[in-house]
Each structure stands twice: as structure tokens, then as C-alpha cells.
Specification:
With 347 residues, this protein is of the alpha+beta class. Among the domains are: 141 residues, no CATH class; 88 residues, Pdz3 Domain, CATH 2.30.42.10. Helices cover 37% and strands 28% of the residues. The strands form seven sheets. The chain has a four-stranded antiparallel beta sheet, with no helix packed on it. Strand 14 and strand 15 form a beta hairpin. It starts with a helix and ends with a helix. The N terminus is likely disordered.
């Protein structure tokens, strides 16, 4: 065994486990805190708030009579409310409930009114949804939103752009059709001819110009999937794929079509890297992918992601706008996850 070569793989695996445990801890804490704080606000006292399970590593008692603790195994957590037989709130601790006054029973989970128990139980999942929306909204605020009309911020180094588009150009039309906002740009690109170059009508410093530039979604590598055929073959971000098996690929979709139709056969890629032509051979791999409508499809992939020809200029996103984006992304993830579970069961 090549132990030296295994070290980087182990380091990557360890970081993955650490990231997973950290994310799980945050999710569990927010979930259980939702139960705890709503329970406290509705008059139900919590005896224990635990992050992790197993032997207790650290604990402290707060002024409300709740013991906060960190346990040895960070694979979950719980809130044990007063009167519950266990942390799962499954059953009643009859011994603890004996001899309590009506006021004291009201502070227990079994003795609280139904509305208080219902709110406390529902609070955990609701807090997780709020966390998800907040995280995606934060990304939206950090990254900003594309300007309208679309404006070129940055361009890659690739043939066909030397005397073409420039940073600051406002894209008014492509191939004679008015360009939509960024959220509809993907559908708009699908209607364009799968050829290159195309005519772009731009506003450059107040001057209306028509220039020729590559297709807005070229076969340009923007990312490599870890452990993919592309990574093993040595493809790099910024590579421009010109042809596969001698067939020109003016767009990313045309490249994807050839890869899919190849049925897993080895492919010869002609590409340009840093202005220099080169050839790479690789073999696609079969992968099951979720679709937008919630289903799954099996496709042959080489493990690269593409992107638009240019990086759009952005403007700061408002709070309401960011929250809408966060809610939309959370809805999509929930829908896709539920659909995935359904297809796993139904086949």
C-alpha cells in the first residue's frame, strides 16, 4: 500500500467528517433550541438540554433550572422536558408527576395544555427551516444579484473574445432577441442556435454596438467534480473544449449531448488551456441525478460544470429580496429531497 499517497486522501476524509459533525451539531442545536425556547415561552420547563449523546463531558445549570450539557458523541442531541419519561418525550414519568400541585403540573410537558405542547413539538422543524432560509438569504446578500440589463463584469481568456465583448458592456440583445433578467437567462439561452459565434448588441459607455462573441454557454470548464473522470484525466478550470472525437462543440449542451450519446465509451477531447492546444482522453461514468420536477435521470458524465461566457455584474441585494431567494431555495431542496425519498421507495 502506498501510505504516502494515502495521507492526502485521509486528510480530505478527516476534513469531510469534521465538516459533517460541525454541520450536524449546528443543525441539532438549532432544532433542539427551537423546542426549548418555545417550551419555555409557553411555560414548559426543560430539565436537560444536551448536545451529543453518551457520557457528559461538560454541564452547567442555568437560572431556569435547565442543565446544559455537552456529551461525548456528537451525533445528535435532545431536550428532556419536565415530566417526560425520557428524552424522546415518549411516556410520562409517573413518579416525578406524583404529588405535584396544579401549578407545578402546568410546567411539565404532560400537564401543559395541548396548544403549548403542539407549539413546542413543532418548533424544532420550524427553526430548522428558518435556519435554512437564513443561510441562503445570507449567501444572496453576500453575492448580490445581477444587474438588469445583464452587464459583463469579467471575461475568461479564450479565443473569439480579443476584439469582442468587454467588461462593462450591457448586453441588450443576442442574435437579435432582447436579453431577459438573469433568472430567465438559462431558458433564454436554450432558444439560441447551438452555433458560435453569435451577434451581441451591447451598450458600451453609451454607444450602441453589435459585436460577435462565442455562445453565452460555451464548453468552458468552470469546475471539476472530485473523483470524477475529468479530475483523473487532468482537466482544469478554464479549459475550453473545442471538439470531442473530432466533432466541434460550440456549446456546453452540445458537449453534454455527445458525452451522453457515447454510452460510456472513451472520449478524445481537443481543448485549449492557457492559449495552448492539447488533447485529453477520458471515460464517462454513469450517475443518477435529481431533476427539477423531483424525479431522477441516469446520465453519463465526465464530471465538469460549466458557466456563462461572462461573469455578470451584481448589485447589493435587499433584505426582503434575499429572504425571498432563501425561501425559494429552501423550498426547492425540500421538494427535491421528498421526491428523492419517494423514488427510493417506489423505484
Amino acid at each position: 500500500m502506498d501510505l504516502i499517497g494515502f495521507v492526502p486522501q485521509f486528510g480530505s476524509f478527516a476534513l469531510t467528517i469534521l465538516a459533517f459533525v460541525t454541520a450536524l451539531t449546528v443543525i441539532v442545536f438549532i432544532h433542539e433550541y427551537g423546542h426549548y425556547i418555545i417550551g419555555r415561552w409557553t411555560g414548559i420547563k426543560a430539565d436537560v438540554f444536551s448536545i451529543g449523546i453518551g457520557p457528559t463531558l461538560w454541564s452547567r445549570m442555568d437560572k431556569y433550572g435547565t442543565r446544559w450539557q455537552v456529551a461525548a458523541f456528537p451525533v445528535g442531541g435532545y431536550v428532556k422536558f419536565r415530566g417526560d419519561a425520557n428524552a424522546a418525550s415518549a411516556g410520562v414519568d409517573g413518579e416525578a408527576m406524583q404529588g405535584l400541585s396544579e401549578a407545578e403540573k402546568r410546567a411539565t410537558m404532560p400537564g401543559a395544555p395541548i396548544w403549548a405542547r403542539a407549539l413546542t413539538v413543532a418548533a424544532g422543524p420550524v427553526f430548522n427551516f428558518v435556519l435554512s432560509i437564513g443561510i441562503f438569504a445570507g449567501f444572496a446578500m453576500y453575492q448580490g444579484v445581477a444587474t438588469d440589463p445583464l452587464t459583463v463584469a469579467n471575461l475568461p481568456q479564450m479565443p473569439g473574445l480579443e476584439r469582442s465583448l468587454q467588461p462593462g458592456d450591457r448586453i441588450l440583445e443576442i442574435n437579435g432577441v432582447k436579453t431577459p433578467a438573469l433568472e430567465d437567462f438559462g431558458d433564454f439561452v436554450d432558444t439560441l442556435p447551438a452555433t458560435s459565434p453569435l451577434e451581441y448588441r451591447v451598450d458600451r459607455d453609451g454607444v450602441d454596438l453589435v459585436v460577435e462573441a462565442p455562445h453565452p454557454f460555451p464548453a468552458l470548464v468552470s469546475g471539476i467534480s472530485p473523483g470524477s473522470a475529468a479530475m483523473e484525466a487532468g482537466l482544469q478550470a478554464g479549459d475550453l473544449i473545442l471538439a470531442i472525437n473530432g466533432i466541434e462543440v460550440p456549446t456546453f449542451d452540445s458537449m453534454r449531448q455527445i458525452v451522453g450519446d457515447g454510452d460510456g465509451a472513451p472520449l478524445v477531447l481537443d481543448l485549449i488551456r492557457d492559449g495552448q492546444p492539447m488533447t485529453v482522453t477520458l471515460t464517462p461514468r454513469k450517475v443518477d441525478l435529481p431533476t427539477r420536477d423531483g424525479g431522477f435521470e441516469t446520465r453519463w458524465l465526465i464530471g465538469i460544470t460549466g458557466g456563462f461566457l461572462f461573469e455578470p455584474a451584481t448589485r447589493p441585494a435587499g433584505v426582503v429580496e434575499s429572504l425571498k431567494a432563501g425561501a425559494s431555495q429552501t423550498k426547492y431542496i425540500v421538494t427535491a429531497s421528498l421526491s428523492g425519498l419517494y423514488h427510493m421507495v417506489a423505484g
